[in-house]
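Shall we go through a protein fold together, starting from nothing but its sequence? Label the sequence line and the structure token line clearly, so we can match residues to local backbone shapes. Would you write everything just below, so we can both look at the same thing?
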Amino acid sequence: MDGRDVNLNQVSFLDRTRLTCQSSPVKNLQRRRQLLDAATAVFAAKGYGSASVADIIQRSGVARGTFYLYFDSKADAFSAVLNDYLEGFRALVTRELKRSYRPPAVLRAVRESVLDFLAYHAGRPQLAAVVFREGMSIEPEFAAPFLKMIRAMSRHWSDVIRRLQELAFVRRSIDPPFLATCFVGMFRQMIVDHVIPDPRADLDRLADQWIDFTVYGAVNREA
């Protein structure tokens, strides 16, 4: 039985498993990545509602039967795209939670954090578009782990802000959780407004603008 010539909707799970296992593990991973990249591009360009399995197959250049070796449906492919994002974002969060913010290198650490976040999404603009435009609204199971990681980062930033308040680096009148929430919102909007439309955006300039606003605010105190 050849997976390229069979309708996998009409065969049993055991047959499907046997067909998949006929290829080497490396080849299977490469083909799955090929389909996953195609699905990401299609969902980013057309949106989940307008996209179809046929679009993904055409984009990937594989046979229809090959698609069903790896995904059960359009919804299954969409979930896989979101999980692909989560895997990379989890590594980003892990790095952030280990980052040290200690004077006199506080601003340098902040800048590194901002650049790390921006660079991750600039390297995956189509994936970022799927996640931020439709991810949580279409796939509830994606929202829970994503928001859990966001909350972990918010708690981390809140703790950092408290420590910096103790060192008189940040004003004590600012509520740490509130400021951390502002950071999350700013990061998200920077991705949506600047990185997704232009993956070649000047990330250094965006990071510097972020720090300038965060540290000095928008009010001209000399006016």
User: Anything to note?
Assistant: Confidence is low (pLDDT under 50) at residues 1-21. The chain has two domains: 8-72, 78-216. DSSP finds ten helices and no strands in the chain.
